[in-house]
């Protein structure tokens, strides 16, 4: 027989044997089904026998066997058998639980449980050996019974919030069984006072039941730590008795808040009050009672879509109303710290400070939310409010722009700068940096408002912040307002400076001919105007803004004097000396109150005065050098290695800003030259 024929015959035998085994298995199934059913009946009878002789521990061991069998049948297709086993297991669970609950309740009564009042002392009976041993035995039995719960309940995670129905179960299964029983009298009190037609069940007083739950947590903490926790530890249960009690009470409060919240969605006042009380409850729960962050509290109820949208709408409505009110008050544009110099560096008007406080309060309300996407929705609301406030400031600014030196205009400028400063501080805050990372991780589609891929990448690299768009708009407004202010100042100063620009510099006497130098009479109006405006702005503008203003004014004034005084006139030796005195002894010192070297902000005028005041010999030599350099540069014949460049010559004289061609122009403005 060839190997191929042998394989064909063996294959035929295998098919025949497979059919036979399938038939045998089909015949054996009913037998196994009946055997399993008989085993369930035997275990059930064993539980009954042990309970009849009060051997609860042995009964629980048999129940454990039933639970193991139930777990083994999880993937079976015998649905009726599974149902029968589950019903049997639940039946004996309820019987044993009822018996143990009754005995455990009696022991707790002896220990004067529940602890209702914070001042209620622990019972001296608690020190009785019989009560202690009874307590320990019953807790151990209840924990063992809970371990054999049907798999669909036993495998529920302890971090899942309980989905309650009407009427709700007394407590979540995730709370350990001994604590569930301990909480039964507390649940009864809670439902008596805060459900039905009781006066204490009031929609406008959620603080009553929230505070009561916190009181029970605090008053029961010592009992749980001193009496129950040692029993748990000796039983080998990795359970915190105090936390379990808090979980049960939180479950009660969750159920109540979830029932009340939909009923007040259309009443803004009641809804706001509930949110405030829930946030306060959560704060005390996590702080005073050390409730673990991994366990859910009440905040997840506020994240339900209808409640969250209502919360956002109410926040916006109330914020807009407060903005209207704060901008219409009499003291909106004055600083409440104006009389305290060391506290008023930013000189923020009351409306701006109140507005940023409003935003900070909103931040504190949503900071604890467990959902980054919900937090980002509140952040978008805050940014929308900031932009709305910016638009309002812009509208008031345009009304006041006819007088940029007025108190209100400067207060608006201080407000814009104050808001920008606070937002930049927030951009570096850990909380907002975490939100920035959350915005990146959520991606472009899920981030409120949508972001471009470039913006998402910039946020991910921390090159930008969540407030960059707002800061750009605020900086633009600040720049526009500073420009208007400086333009107004220069118009006023240039008007005062007209006589000074028309001074007869060519005919002024030499310094030697005067007994003492004094300020030019034509310069007095200009100098007084500069001095008064600087003093006034120093008082009404914040320090950072005033720095920008006086430096901007110095730059513009430098350019104005250089163009309209220096380049528009010719100077005798006396005229140059008078200009030097006016600048160095009068104008520059006006700015010396705000910096150490004010002349550095008048580079054109400082260097022009240096050139105009050169003695005749130095001036003639310098002019010859510059002309020669200019000619050689034009002819490309200058030997760079032989002669120093004209810039180095000017630098030795203290001239760094003016170009050689500008210096040559200034030298030609001098009236006194040898031979003339």
UniProtKB/TrEMBL annotation:
Q: Which InterPro entries match?
A: EXOC6PINT-1/Sec15/Tip20_C_dom2, RINT1_Tip20
Quote a single Gene Ontology cellular component term. Dsl1/NZR complex
Kindly state a single biological-process term from the GO annotations of this entry. Answer: endoplasmic reticulum to Golgi vesicle-mediated transport
- As given in the record, the signal peptide range reads none
The superkingdom of the source organism is Eukaryota
Family annotation (PANTHER family): RAD50-INTERACTING PROTEIN 1, RAD50-INTERACTING PROTEIN 1 RINT-1
Q: Which family does it belong to?
A: Belongs to the RINT1 family.
Q: What protein name applies here?
A: RAD50-interacting protein 1
Species name: Oryzias sinensis
